[in-house]
Design a protein that fits this description.
The protein is an alpha+beta fold. It folds into 2 domains: about 50 residues; about 140 residues, no CATH class. It is about 25% helix and about 20% strand. It is built from 4 helices and 8 strands, in the order H-E-E-E-H-E-E-H-E-E-E-H. Strands 1, 2, 3, 4, 5 and 8 form a 6-stranded mixed beta sheet that branches. Helix 1 packs antiparallel against helix 4. This is Secreted protein. Keywords: Membrane, Signal, Transmembrane, Transmembrane helix.
Length: about 240
């Protein structure tokens, strides 16, 4: 008997593909919803007139006289997603009112507590400010910061938790979110230093679908293609 119409076959096949595509969309959406960031103070060094993410923590860096360094509080997934300080890295402008002195060095600091969107619940970020620290020639960046922005708070791994008492609590805690920045800051591409919060998903990235999730979606689509081919062979 000759089949006169393929409509009865096409309808189930189309329905199957629609279900598979919907399932893929749900899985991708779930992957995106799992994206998270960390709320912390990031440490920056001047690269000419621009900012570069520091590759060492401030307690390890011993800046030269005339150095400009920055601290920015924000929510970010990793160093590649971190927001730069929102002030120019200009030593001359920041230290203009602090004359050089024998037996001391000057370090210009930009302290940017970030925006209200990045603030912990119930807290309001203080205003961005600059300071010119005049410290001993062998002083670290952490010592320079402490000379102008006490009280500082650190965790057991020497990560800065608070500058000038902000925020009142917490330290590099994970927070939910999509990682999108709303203040237009340019984002760096430097690798994450040891002082940045580490992700705990083992994926090596700060968010987005994991390799396992993508493999699962691929398997679903392959099964769908196989079903379509089998249906065609039965015509």
């Amino acid at each position: 008997m000759t089949r006169t119409s393929s409509a009865p076959l096409r309808t189930p096949v189309a329905a199957l593909l629609a279900v598979l595509l919907a399932a893929s969309g749900v899985l991708l959406g779930a992957g995106g919803a799992q994206a998270a960031g960390y709320r912390y103070w990031s440490f920056w060094e001047a690269d000419g007139k621009s900012w570069a993410y520091a590759t060492q923590g401030p307690s390890l860096v011993r800046p030269d006289d005339g150095t400009v360094q920055g601290f920015r509080f924000a929510v970010s997934e990793d160093s590649a997603d971190a927001d730069r300080p929102r002030h120019a890295a200009d030593f001359g402008a920041i230290c203009a009112d602090t004359p050089a002195k024998g037996g001391a060095k000057r370090v210009a600091l930009v302290i940017d507590p970030g925006t209200a969107e990045d603030a912990p619940a119930g807290e309001k970020p203080p205003a961005l400010r600059t300071a010119c620290a005049q410290v001993a020639p062998d002083a670290s960046s952490a010592e320079a910061l402490a000379s102008v922005a006490k009280p500082l708070r650190y965790d057991s791994s020497a990560m800065i938790c608070a500058i000038s008492g902000y925020p009142k609590s917490g330290c590099g805690e994970q927070v939910s979110g999509d990682g999108n920045k709303k203040d237009g800051s340019e984002k760096p591409s430097a690798p994450a230093p040891s002082s940045a919060p580490a992700t705990d998903d083992g994926s090596g990235s700060g968010g987005g679908p994991s390799a396992g999730l993508l493999l699962g979606i691929g398997a679903i689509l392959l099964l769908g293609i196989a079903a379509v081919l089998q249906a065609r062979r039965r015509r």
